[in-house]
Design brief:
Blueprint: E1 7-9, E2 22-30, E3 45-53, E4 56-62, E5 73-82, E6 87-95
Parallel strand pairs: 1-5
Antiparallel strand pairs: 2-5, 3-4, 3-6
Protein name: C2 domain-containing protein
GO biological process, one term: regulation of neurotransmitter secretion
Pfam families: C2
Amino acid sequence: MASSQIIYGLPEDTDYPEGTIKLLRIKVIEGVNLAKKDIFGASDPYVKISLLQNNVLMDTKQTTVVKKSLNPKWSEEFTFRVNPVDCVIHLEVFDSNRVT
């Protein structure tokens, strides 16, 4: 692994037994036929990646926004430090122009 790689998720100094914490690499490749979300029939999508541990949000990251596309291509990688026993990853697609 390159030393410049950023690792998100659980802190490095957790109190888990040795060998319990793993690195999970997520590659967001593309979206296909996303829903039209604005009046012009396009979308400005991005993907939000959330790490939860025991239903508590631990970290969140997102891809770049791809302007005016229903078939966006991201090819972005994220590495998270996780405990596979009690961590859950959620991936959600949003439109950056939508007001929530």
